Structure of DNA-(apurinic or apyrimidinic site) lyase:
Amino acid sequence: MPEGHSVHRIARQFDRNYVGRAVRASSPQGRFAEGAELLDGRIAEGVRAVGKQMFLGFEGDTWLRVHLGMYGAWDFAGEIVADPTIASANGRMGQTNQRGTFLEDEPIMDAAGENSLTSIGAPRKARVHVRMSEQTTGLPEDDGEWPPPIVGQVRLRLLTDVTCADLRGPTACQVQSPDEVISTIAKLGPDPLVDDVDQGEERFTAVVRRKPTPIGLLLMDQAVVSGIGNVYRAELLYRARLDPHTPGRDVPEEVVRELWRDWVKLLAIGVETGQMMTMDDLDPDQWRAAMASRDDRHWVYRRAGLPCRTCATAILLEEMGARKLYWCPFCQR
């Protein structure tokens, strides 16, 4: 499932390439035909991400709400102006380590293209090509056909004169009024990139500390905290050396606060790099290896049966909240 960092990257891409422009909307699949008709021809006026949901505002107080869910993704084609907050000064996508040291001019892709500008969300076997603008370099040219051909089941296509975004497989795709957007966001927990960080910490801590629910479930509850999915849950719990089954109300307050502060840090790294990097204190060679391979990027996630990187105990795999949970029974006791 796309986690919070991906949705924030999508929102920034829409901000750079759609806001201020008239948008042609269609539903090639037909399942969002009425909604697309309401959006068609309107100027995009703003965009925001909250947790795993994105809200794209159009003139006339009309909003598009998209929740990618387990399998959703946006595929981009045409000209893409890279977000300068996640690009290096020379216009290329850059990588930095967790202390901010610049490491690479070129993006380091993993096998799933997680750092891609062209498809953000659930992994895709095929990637659409893009024609990069003068602000960005390094990705393949398209084949010259415009607009690009429709491939597969596209729920919504948003098209400007130079950029195309195709939405596939979302859990939710709907038109909302401003009041409906406010109501939707009000049901979500704090997001470090949206809410005041200190206020978010207080909200998160207060909710967790009164709940009998296991902390491993609370971190996945979007009403408790926004944006955390299966990968970040496992990694945050390991980094805190916290047993996933511990009731929230039994987790020491300072540990709860450290969970929030660690989420603030990891989310920022994810948005910047496009990858869920959760390993600390890597040298440049280790960083490049981790950026290229998920096997070198995480402490416990997808390491069932393998030795813990710290204590060599076999990593356990169980189901919690209908999702796979990876954890170390020695380090997290």
